Amino acid sequence: MSVLASNVRPISGVGIGLRSQHIHEILTTLPDLDWLELLADNHLAEGGQSVDQLDSISKHYPLTLHCVGMSLASVEPLDLEYCQRIKRLAKRVNASWISEHLCFSAALGVYSHDLLPIPYNKETLAHCVQRVQQIQEALGDRLLVENVSSYMTFKNSDMSEISFISALAEQADCDLLIDVNNIYVNQLNHGLDGKAYIDHLPVERVREIHLAGYQQQENFVLDAHNNPVSEPVWALYQRLIERQPNIPTLIEWDNDIPPLQVLLDEVKKARQIIQRVKEAQA
User: Fold this and answer.
1) Residue 197's closest CA among 147, 150, 156, 245?
2) Domain for residue 2, yes or no?
3) Per-residue pLDDT tens for 57-102?
C-alpha cells in the first residue's frame, strides 16, 4: 500500500504528459483522458499559479509524477531533500506513483541537465540497486524505473540492457516504466533487438508505458519527443500490449509542442491498439 497519499486513484487506460501550454484548455474542456503525468521538477515551487492549477487538475484526473533529478546511477550522494520535496508534491496532488530514469545526471557537483547512460555490469547493478532501495525508503513507496535512450555504449558492459533492468527490478524490488520509443531509438542507434527486449520484459513489474516520437539526425536518431509516435514504435507497443493489455499508457510530447488535439489523436491510436488486442484475446 502506498504511503504517498491515502486517497490515490487507480491509474488505467491512456493519458498524456501535462504541459503548461495545455493546462488552460484541459481545465476548461476536460477532454477524454484517463490520467495525466506531471514532470515533477516543473512543479516544485511552494506556491503560485502552477500549484493552484495542479490542485484543480487533480480534482478531475488521476495523476502520476515523473522525475529527472534523482540521478539514480550517480556516485554523488543522494539528494534526500529533493526526494522529500517530490514526496510532498505527490501527497498534495494525490499522485498514484513516482517514476525516474535509469541514468545519472550529476557528477563532481555538476548537473548535466541530461539523462546520461551507464555501463551494464554487475558493479553498476549493485550500485543502482542500493540507490533505488534508499530512494524507495525515503519515498515510502516503490519507484518506477524507466529505461532510457542512449547515444553511446560502454566497453565494460557485460550485460544486455534488458538483463540489467530486469535484475534491477528484482533485486531492488522496484517497478518499471517502459518507454517503447527508447527501445526503438536504441535499436536504431546500437542494434538492440527491440522485439527480443519486449519478449523478455518481466511484465509483472511493468506498471506504465511511455510512447513518444524521435527525430532523425545525420548519423543517429534523437529521442526528441517532438514528433508523433512512429509506426515501428506502434508495432513494438502492440507486441508489449499483447503480453499484458492492461498496462497504463502515456503519450509524451516535450518539444515543438502541438495543439492538444494532436495528442488526443495519439491517445485514440493507443486505445484502438488496446481494443484490438483485447478483442483478439477474448
Assistant:
1) 147
2) no
3) 999 999 999 999 999 999 989 999 999 999 999 999 999 999 999 9
